[in-house]
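Fold these two proteins, one after the other.
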Amino acid sequence: MDASDSVPVIIDAVRGKGKDALIRCVYLTIEGIGPSPDWTLYLENTKIPYIMLGFSGIIHRPVKGRIFNSAKRITDLVDAIEKQGEFFVDTNGVWLPKRSFRKKPRGGDVWRVPLGTFKFGLMYSEGSLDDNIFSEGFNAMDTMMAEFSDSETRAFASWEEKIIQRTRDSYHERKHLALGWKNVEGEH
């Protein structure tokens, strides 16, 4: 499956049983902190200057390369986005039927979901489709199955470990940012 027409999703949770089970998947997004001036929209032969009020996009591949096959590629992408100060990387969720996966998905696995399948799941997750239309639509999309990505599963697991370790390492340097608390006796 080509990375340009698929979205990497990380398996989060399974709800329900059997053929009607739904899988909650997490995906990366780039979000804008607006308003942001000096943007240009290119439509055919026309350039339209505008001020960006909000921005949200799905991240589907790294800055260099077709897939996230190393923790470094994920880190490089996040750093490139967040160093600008006007953007940040976030996560969102989408529900997909279990039958859209070729084998049983496990928590933490990364799968590549075809864009058409992803869009349909996103419409359902946002409340634009009822259960019947969602189910019938996925029955018709028999050929648009998600594909397991072993290299991206390993890359995201490694990246997550590095983020957790970096957070642990920096905790003592940033204690002043921690929320205050008092025990039952009123002591800190």
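Now the second one:
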Amino acid sequence: MGSNPKMSQRISEILNSGQFYCLMGAPLDSGNLGVSALALSVIESIAKRHPNWVPVLLDYSRGEFLSSTRLSNGEELELVHIGTSVSRRFWRTDNLNFIRLAQRIGFPHDALKAFRNSQSVLDISGGDSFTDLYGPKRFEDMTVRKQLALQEGGKLILLPQTYGPYSTDETFRVASELVQNSTASWARDARSFETLNKMMDGKEAEGQARLGVDVAFGLPLLPPDEAVQSQVNAWSNDSLTTVGINVSGLIYNGGEDAQAQYDLKGNYRELVDKLVRKFLADESVRVVLVPHVIPPNNPVESDLTACEAVRKAVPQELQSRLEVIPALSDPRCAKWVISHCDWFCGTRMHSTIASLSTQVPTGALAYSLKTKGVFETCDCGDCVIELRDDPVETCVQGMWDCFQRREEIRETLASSIPRIAEQVEEQADSIVRAMEGITHSELVEQV
């Protein structure tokens, strides 16, 4: 436990109170605003329904500590962080191997206590990491906390996420056992719901496997600092059309290695540079580059690094209509900025959820199937260009055509997003009812 006696006492009080829930798979400090959006969407939705429940984040922190977050209603909410990381330093109390050993020998540990005493153990696996796609170590990282929670008698609830793919029978079996032993599991799109049902293998209780929607559709907006607000508010002072573009640093900075790793048809850097220049060739357009992943000490994966590289590649005479949004630490602030665009194009999926959910006409340059599923939920599946299938010129033209159709897309979103917003609220109610211990059949009856 932390070295501060008052902090340690407060954490102990919370873990003994029963008025808390565990949240796993969505750290707030990764620099990935998409992952942070998942965490804050869950925290905000539960705080609306149970303002006294404290979130206990089992994340990659060092040790244990308290923090707080400002909710969109202006109130401060206390948070508990308990480190549960995988590393070679097995002797550290925040190491998952140490925690597993503590469980075996009956040694007290606050992570295990949190699993036992919590209202529920919520897990979202980073949205798309409950898979063996990223290697065996990552798969173990995604599964071991779930296993520990169940072994401690915790009520495991798998929040809306992607399930799979699984490349071996063994990883499919391990993942399926966790799903089958959960209190409830939500898939965030129809494609993933099919996988979830296969994993259940007919063994689910009534209402245990549910089709849902990405929780980030319910993320509130929060104005950023005054400097960024002033930058955005200035857009209304002229007649320019504001085109927002999210550039993935992972692919842009990764060059040919990233192109090969993700099996992209064309060169992403060339694509982005051509797309930006095509928009800037229209003198009625302003281009705003919006970073959404800025991992600490990792410039290669940083969207901000990529945005600055894009800006440097633009001719000086066009620079006056090109802006870069500075690094934002809160996804609610990024969503506020994106909501002020007239049209948006993103590669990071959660940057596009921020635009879609605020009814900004949106296109996507996608390199995984999960993006297509999200856009299909919004009746905008034809606004997704697959980087694995289409060459550079086709991608550029596809986004330009999407931009030209922006008013049509706006009308589509005006119809679909209110429906999704209602679904988000109903889903949050169902999740909280599951946390409160209502049975599966009762859960179904109340939906």
